[in-house]
From TrEMBL:
Keyword Transcription regulation attributed: yes
Bias type Basic and acidic residues, positions: 31-45
Name recorded for this polypeptide: Cyclin-like domain-containing protein
Chain segments carrying region Disordered: 1-45
Pfam family, one: TFIIB
InterPro entries: Cyclin-like_dom, Cyclin-like_sf, TFIIB, TFIIB_cyclin
GO cellular component, one term: nucleus
PANTHER family for the chain: TRANSCRIPTION INITIATION FACTOR IIB, TRANSCRIPTION INITIATION FACTOR IIB-RELATED
Stored CDD domains: CYCLIN_SF
Residue ranges of domain Cyclin-like in the record: 50-131, 144-226, 292-374
Keywords: Transcription, Transcription regulation
Any GO molecular function: TBP-class protein binding
Length: 376
């Protein structure tokens, strides 16, 4: 015989309070966890307000910087839980932004070095805070740092102005270094350029203020020096055409070879830019004649008027015969021949003497003299 296993299920029903008035409905008691959490959060924020005030004093920031940073921190963490968040990094990021707003900006490296927090953390949370609170976080410029660095180094206004000049020149030339690096290198170079030895500062001094390695400062200074040399060369080479044209206008013309030889610039550069300047300013650039050069060459050689007149005569004769040599070559050859024709031995000048004045090779002078003799 098989046994029947029956399963009995007892269904319990909740009594309806309407039908069973004796049973009272259960009331859900409100938990105090949210209140406790908000209290803990406010206490923590109060503590961080005190810490922000200490950071402000530690970094010598203006008095209004602390309240601004505290207000930012409270607004940013208003709807967030504080557990699991690097509050220290967020607080320092708020101080970093507030320092910018009160026009006393500090670099991320300075903030990180002084407060022992990583640069990446401060930078990341500074960006997040600025985005969350819709704050315009303009980049720091070297000009904003130079004044503070110079003040901390005890440098005078003259050195500070020179540092501004170097930094602005580097930024105009699009030097890719950061603002603190540019400021530090500019200050170091400006202090070293000073005539007052009391204003000289070592790389270590600047490093301590800017929180940058000595190698970075030295490398940036080397870059600045190379740029400055190239810029000065460009300016120097561009300014020579103006001098060349102005010398013509005051009736003291110099040849392109003279300008190039004395100033160590190529003849082509000066000639090209002289033509451009003359065209742009609509200046009549008349060609130089040997007569304009002979007087100056003779004066520099210490020759008498008789020799000068003879040189004029030889040069004019050669030009009438359409000698194709340049004016400086004709003038040099004419002066050499006139001096050699003089009866006064004190008026004799060698080819080397004439070469030094006219900036022409001895071979060119001798060949032109031989041509003149054949023509004569």
């Amino acid at each position: 015989m098989g046994s029947n296993n029956t399963i009995r299920v007892k269904i319990s029903r909740k009594p309806d309070p309407k039908t069973h008035p004796k049973t009272k409905p259960q009331t859900i008691k409100g938990s105090k966890s949210d209140d406790k959490e908000s209290e803990r959060k406010s206490e923590a924020l109060d503590k961080w307000s005190q810490r922000i005030a200490r950071i402000q004093l530690k970094m010598n920031l203006p008095a209004e910087c602390g309240p601004k940073a505290d207000d930012m921190l409270r607004k940013y963490l208003k709807n967030m839980k504080m557990t699991g968040r690097p509050i220290k990094a967020i607080a320092i990021a708020c101080v970093y932004i507030a320092a910018k707003q009160v026009e006393m900006p500090h670099t991320l490296k300075e903030m990180a070095f002084i407060n022992k927090v990583s640069v990446k953390q401060i930078g990341r949370y500074a960006q997040k805070v600025a985005e969350a609170l819709r704050i315009d976080a303009d980049p720091i410029t070297p000009d904003q740092l130079i004044s503070r660095f110079c003040y901390r180094l005890g440098l005078e206004r003259a050195v500070e102005r020179q540092a501004f000049h170097i930094a602005n020149a580097s930024y105009k030339l699009h030097v890719s270094s950061g603002p603190s690096v540019v400021a530090a290198a500019a200050i170091y170079m400006a202090s070293q350029d000073s005539n007052d030895r009391s204003q000289w500062r070592s790389v270590e001094d600047v490093k301590g203020v800017a929180c940058i390695s000595t190698a970075t400062i030295r490398n940036t200074c080397a870059l600045f020096k190379n740029i400055r040399k190239s810029v000065l060369f460009i300016l120097y080479s561009i300014h020579k055409p103006f001098v060349y044209i102005a010398a013509k206008q005051v009736e003291m013309p110099h040849t392109l070879k003279e300008m190039a030889f004395i100033n160590k610039v190529s003849v082509k550069q000066i000639g090209r830019y002289a033509q451009k300047v003359a065209e742009a300013l609509r200046i009549d650039a008349d060609p130089i004649t040997p007569d304009q050069l002979i007087s100056r060459f003779c004066y520099r050689l210490g020759l008498e008027r008789a020799v000068e007149r003879q040189a004029f005569h030889i040069a004019n004769a050669s030009y009438k015969l359409h000698v194709s040599s340049g004016p400086s070559v004709v003038a040099a050859a004419a002066i050499y021949m006139a001096s050699q024709d003089s009866n006064d031995r004190s008026q004799w000048r060698s080819v080397e003497d004439v070469k030094g004045v006219a900036c022409i090779s001895t071979a060119t002078i001798r060949n032109t003299c031989a041509l003149f003799k054949n023509i004569r």
